[in-house]
Task: structure prediction
Amino acid sequence: MPTRVTVTCPDCEFEAAFSKLRDARECVDDHERDGHDPDWRIDRLTAGVERAGDDAGVCGGDDCNPDSPLLVDRE
Result:
């Protein structure tokens, strides 16, 4: 399933959907620079991003998956 992020801005009634987190974040930044207060909602993430999040646990803490190929050796 592809990534889908929705950005909305109640100040100007703007709404747009993005398939990349970076593009959505840039849109939010642009609106904030214009003095608006936008919001964004991550509706879904690609499977690889979800797996990376699951493997990392909470902020890469002790609950991460030690067998993940994404884990960098901490020693």
